[in-house]
Each structure stands twice: as structure tokens, then as C-alpha cells.
Amino acid sequence: MEAPTTPSADGDGSGAAAAAGGQDGGWFGRGQTGARGPQRPGHPETGRSAPGSARPAQRRPAPAAAAVPSATELLRRTMAEIEPIADRVTSYFYALLFLHHPGLRDLFPAAMDAQRDRLFKALLTAATHADDPVTLTTYLTHLGRGHRKYGTLPQHYPAVGEALIGALARHAPETWGPRTEAAWVGAYTTISQIMIDAATEDELRAPAWWQAEVVAHVMRTKDVAVVTVRPDGPYPFLAGQYTALETPWWPRVWRHYSFASAPRSDGLLSFHVKAVPAGWVSNALVHRARTGDVIRLGPPTGSMTVDHTSDSGLLCLGGGTGIAPIKALVEDVAQHGRLRSVDVFYGARRDHGLYDIDTMLRLQQSHPWLSVHPVVDDGPVGLLSGGIPEAVREFGPWHTYDAYLSGPPGMIRRSVDTLVGIGVPSHRIRHDSIEELVGATT
After folding, report:
1. Same domain assignment for residues 116 and 253
2. Where is this region: Disordered (predicted)?
3. Pairwise CA distance, residues 248 & 289, whole Å
4. pLDDT tens, 389-428?
5. Are 272 and 408 contained in the same domain?
6. Residue 2 domain-assigned?
7. Boundaries of domain holding 223
């Protein structure tokens, strides 16, 4: 599906000349040729100058032609130009979209504060992976399936492409031009088609969302609740995955939460939710939701799952409510009955933040292969302190373990740096998308 284009500015090299291959300076530099006076004859046998004669001027090699940038390089140049003004570009993108296609406004939440950056950033993220088809296809397939819950249809994609091209053309004058526009149109055509195909395929096997009734709501601290729901139909997922939730109090506002248990025989799903300041969905789920309320679930997603064909140990780091998917992974290992070492580092700022420590210690008592290490940033004697990354350094070695990380984005970044620094290969480190974790905190 091709996105409509807009009139181009001449910022791509030298505008039309650059697009034509660099004539008149464009992508090719010109060598300077100085005036040369008459040459005195030299010896014909040797080619050397005759005695007393001036040496002939040496012929300078022609300057090499500047390389024509690839389409991917053009995309990245545009990205670099708009990065300092990303907020302005995003606002203009949505203004164009809603001005020319007002019917699409109903697909977005009434308050755009949290949603505003997501679609635009997703498009830009996809464009930067244009030269990595495997990563691009995986990312966009997930994105296309996930967008079904918003009510996105194939006919909506050209409008989004038109707004994207318009916003970039307006705010990237230094890098924009015919060739850059063509690169972005080509990239968006690929992006949209992969997403459409993924959504079409997914439509044949699963609904866009599930209705789910709240059957239990237990406060674990003054701002953390365990919410258990019963979906209105089969809901297949894997331990370690997550989904998006929408409440009836904030229509069209979705937030990601991890499943707090491995799949259960009764089909119930549990989530650990912490209410955060100004968090619309989190506050609604913690302080407003009650038994009998109905919420909506998006499809399960995420690759932080256990490889049950391996005997490698598991190193699991869970911070705050990030213990939820870690607990699910432990249950998953127990259900499969394959003996393998599992070490869990469960962290919080204060000891009272370890709200699920009793559950984890009971699991440790039931499974000799499981070791649970409570960690607090600043706590009483007898507990590991200083944060999860620092505590992990005191144990190990971990280079043969598969690492699973879940918690606040800052904790995950520090933990990844620590694990890589102590020799854990990066391909053994798994965690959810940092961008989606940031979105889950509202």
C-alpha cells in the first residue's frame, strides 16, 4: 500500500540536481583545475625534463565521486534531523491526520498525552530497521496484530502515511528532497503491508480483544493490587508473556501488564498492578475495579519465555511488580518437571515493597532447585542491599545461565549492563521492550 506523497522541498543534496545524480555539484565534488602555462620539452627517451627546464605539472587524479546514500541512510538522516524537535513533529503529524481524516480521531483516547508519541515512534522505529528484514518483520507483525484492538483497518493506513510524509517534509528541510521522500514512501509501503498482512492472518484465528470479568481483587499494599479475571473465551498464552488491558473508565487507553502465573487449568488470569501518580489505568485497576467489573484484554505477546529444550540454569531478576512474570516462569519450570537451577533476585526499594516474598519463599520450600534472594535498596540487616545489579555480582558465575529481567526500565538497563559486564552473553538476556515498560507505568 503506497502512501500519498507531498510536494518536496529541495533539501536532498542540491534538490533536483542531487536527485538526478549530483550534476552541478550535487553528490559529486568538482576538482579544481589551475591554469597551466606552456610546457618545455623534455628528453623523449626518458621523459625527464631537459636540463634547466621546469618540471611539468603533475596530473592530479580526478576526485572520487561521493557515494550516493542508500535509502536506509536517507531515512536515518531524516531521523537525526527531527530528533531534537520530535515533540513538535509528533504534534504536527496528529494535527494533519485529524484535520484531513477527522473520522480517525475516534480510534484514539480522548486524552492524547500518553498515546500521542506511540504510533509516530513505532513508525520511525520500523523505518530505522528497513535494512534488517527479519527484525522488521517480527516487530511489525507484532504491531499489526496488536493494532487490531484499536479498531485499525486496512483503509486507515494511507491516511497515516500521508500524515507521516507531510510531517517529515515540513520539519526536515535539510535532509528532505525527492530521493528522501521516495525512501520514506517505500519504507512506509513495506511497513503498512506487513502490518496489514499480519492483522489479516491473525483475524482468522483470534478475536481482536477479549472481554474479561474481574473475579478477585486483593490489595497487597496500599498501592499494589492483584487483579484476577476470567476471559470470555479461550485465551492461550505462555508464562513470561504480557498483554494490554483497557478499563471501562478510560476507553481506548491500553496499558501492558505481565501475567502473574503460568497458564492455569481454570483459565483464570492474574495481574500485579501498582497505582502510580497520574496513572489512569493503574489507578483505575487498583482503586476502582471491583469483582464483577468487565475489562478488555488484548492478545498475549512477548518473547521472555522459557526454552524447555535446554538444561541451562535460569537467572531471574524481578523488581517491584516485575516479580509477577518471574513467578510465572518459576511455575512454568515446575510444571514441565525438568530439573534445572533457578535463581531469583527479588528487589524493592524498601523491605515492605517485597509484597510477594512469602509466595516466593513457599515456592522455594517446595522446589529444591529454586533459590530466592530478597534484595532492597536500603533495608535491614540480613537482606541483600544496594539494588539488584549489585546483589547479582556477589553470586554466580552466571555466564552459562539464561537471564530474565522484569521491572522498572531503569532497573532493567542497569541489570543488562551489569550482566554483560560480568560475562553473560547478550543473546542470553531477555526482557520486555523498554518502550512498552514505560507505557505500563501509567
Report:
1. no
2. 1-69
3. 10
4. 989 988 989 999 999 999 999 999 999 999 999 999 999 9
5. no
6. no
7. 210-297
- Helix and strand counts by DSSP (H, E) for the chain: 13, 12
- Do residues 248 and 273 both lie within one domain? yes
pLDDT score for 117 = 66
191 with 226, same domain: the answer is no
Answer yes or no: are the C-beta atoms of 305 and 240 closer than 8 Å: yes
The DSSP secondary structure of 98-125, one letter per residue, reads HHH-GGGGGGS-S--TTTHHHHHHHHHH
* 244 and 363 belong to one structural domain: no
Number of domains in the chain: 3
Q: Which three cell numbers stand for residue 376?
A: 532492597
Indicate whether 52 and 153 sit together in one domain. yes
If you search the block for the grid coordinates 486507515, which residue do you land on? 156
Q: Which residue has the cell 484535520?
A: 99
Do 195 and 243 sit in the same domain of this protein? Answer: no
As a whole number of angstroms, the distance between CA 172 and CA 76 comes to 12
Distance of CA 249 to the CA centre of its chain: 27
Q: Residues 6 or more apart from 136 whose CB is under 8 A from it? A: 126, 129, 130, 190, 191, 194
The answer to whether 377 touches 350, Cβ cutoff 8 Å, is: yes
pTM for this prediction: 0.74
